[in-house]
UniProtKB/TrEMBL annotation:
InterPro entries membership: HARBI1_dom, Znf_SWIM
Top-level taxon of the source organism: Eukaryota
Pfam families per UniProt: DDE_Tnp_4
Protein's UniProt keywords contain Nucleus: no
SWIM-type domain location: 426-470
Protein name: SWIM-type domain-containing protein
Keyword Zinc-finger: yes
PROSITE patterns from the UniProt entry: ZF_SWIM
GO molecular function: zinc ion binding
Organism: Parnassius mnemosyne (clouded apollo)
Length: 496
């Protein structure tokens, strides 16, 4: 490979090592003319992008491009400084993004749930990410960088992201011991640039790590939202809590996806960071963020976004009457009420046949559907299938205001093993209205898991039964995911 004439390299080889096409590479050169004015600037840019792409050491890259290591490091340092001065400010930060431009970075579902009709409220998602580093002989730095949560040494960059994946700004790195709430409070302190940029009633989508900053943000006039926490002494969220939590998580996945793009496109942030490179870590992170903003693909609305939003509005204030009945009659402990059946193709006559579109609208997304296939694999590998039961006793649906007709209903119960705790299982209940096709035939459902009472979407355990009984068992072949891993670990006799 001739790195002296890098633009003459084969296109596929170029993109493999640099991570960008020649057109995008030339675009950077055109937008930052100082690179070409620097001696071997084109090679220096390629080396910097190659380092971020591969995560290789300077010595290995220097050998590959056939220049001395010290020369390569000096060239990378010069190009990094030029990018920070000329490229990053044009593609990252609140100073290059007007409020009107921020309002354009929107999706239907987040703004339909939390925004106003006039589209005057900005909506952003905040989160910190982790970059793992080695242990240090600098004891003060070692204590500051060791996370008791992850049991590893790490540093925390912090990002503010629009709901279509555009990175508004990133900050840090912060100590491993600094919570997201502390970071948020410091960034929005009185007189700060962010405090001036965001206005009253702007919306912040957060996770539970920000709970100690919620009152502060509300005091600033903002509207923060985060998933609900359990009330002390309870084992399950209420229906209203679970629904509000689902409204947050259906929007918050964007920041997790953006974090994933950093680790996917730039291996430098995926592996343990070299100590020698730590002084430049945040600068490289800002360059990566600017590159993602400049060349990355923005998230777009799901093709079912309008329908999903309408379903959320319809079901947001519904009570989970089936969960109330299950709790009142203590059904989890009753065995005589139910008869076991096998989940084959012919014995559950009343369960409606569903299309993939029905599953997406039932779950209000695809995450639970992906989880359902993994739960399916867990059960068929070592247990042969699901344990599914049909209620054989008459129950008074009108007494608990169960939705659907008073006659011609079937109550199904399933037991789904937890994916986290081996000895834990969850009880799933699904109420069907007989001979009603499609997802409308499923009138109510609940689960004994943390969020099992939600009526906005469903948990992964409910979806596991719905996915299998309504869709998967009617397919020609359904395989468990990652089957090649089944024989890797030596298993004890009782596990087999």
């Amino acid at each position: 490979m001739d790195f002296e004439n890098i633009l003459e390299m084969d296109d596929r080889v170029f993109e493999y090592w640099i991570g960008f096409t020649k057109e995008k590479f030339n675009s950077i050169l055109e937008e930052v003319p100082r690179i070409n004015e620097t001696r071997k600037g084109c090679l220096g840019l390629a080396a910097l992008l190659m380092k971020m792409r591969t995560g290789d050491s300077d010595e290995r890259i220097a050998t590959l491009v056939q220049v001395p290591r010290r020369t390569l490091e000096n060239s990378i340092d010069k190009i990094r400084e030029i990018l920070l001065q000329d490229f990053v400010p044009q593609n990252l930060g609140i100073y290059q993004l007007t409020r009107e431009q921020l309002l354009e970075h929107k999706l239907t579902i987040p703004h339909g749930i939390f925004g106003n009709e006039n589209n005057t409220n900005a909506l952003v998602i905040c989160d910190g990410t982790y970059i793992y580093i080695n242990k240090s002989s600098n004891y003060m730095f070692q204590k500051q960088s060791y996370s008791l949560h992850k049991y590893r040494n790490l540093l925390k960059p912090f990002m503010i992201v629009a709901c279509d994946g555009y990175i508004v700004d990133c900050f840090g790195p912060y100590k491993a011991t600094t919570s997201d709430a502390e970071i948020m409070t410091n960034l929005f302190s009185e007189g700060s640039a962010l405090r001036s940029y965001f206005r009253e009633n702007d919306i912040f989508i957060l996770d539970r790590g920000f709970r100690d900053s919620i009152s502060f943000l509300e005091g600033c006039g903002y509207k923060p939202y985060m998933p609900e926490s359990l009330i002390e002494g309870e084992h399950q969220l209420t229906t209203a809590q679970a629904n509000r939590s689902r409204c947050v998580t259906i929007c918050r996945w964007v920041v997790e996806a953006v974090n994933g793009h950093f680790k996917r496109d730039f291996k430098l942030f995926r592996q343990e960071y070299f100590h020698r490179s730590l002084p430049h870590m945040m600068q490289n992170f800002q360059i990566a963020a600017a590159l993602l903003n400049r060349f990355g693909v923005r998230f777009v609305d799901n093709i079912y976004a309008t329908e999903i939003l309408e379903i959320i509005r319809q079901q947001m204030n519904l009570e989970n009457n089936l969960a109330n009945m299950v709790e009142a009659q203590n059904m989890n402990r009753r065995t005589s009420y139910f008869q076991s059946i096998t989940a084959d193709r012919n014995n559950i006559l009343y369960f409606p046949i569903l299309e993939m579109r029905d599953l997406i609208l039932f779950a209000l997304g695809t995450y639970q559907i992906r989880q359902a296939r993994s739960y399916y694999g867990e059960h068929v590998r070592f247990h042969g299938g699901y344990r599914i039961e049909v209620c054989s006793e008459q129950f008074h649906s009108s007494e608990y205001d169960l939705r659907g007709s008073t006659n011609g209903t079937t109550l199904i119960r399933g037991r789904i093993k937890s994916r986290h705790v081996t000895r834990r299982q969850y009880y799933v209940y699904i109420l069907l209205e007989n001979n009603i096709p499609g997802r409308t035939g499923i009138t109510e459902y609940c689960c004994s898991c943390l969020v099992g009472r939600r009526t906005v979407g469903c948990c992964a355990h409910v979806m596991t039964l719905v996915w299998y009984l309504g869709w998967a068992r009617h397919q020609q072949h359904i395989s468990a995911p990652a089957e090649f891993l089944d024989g890797v670990i030596v298993r004890e006799d009782d596990e087999e």
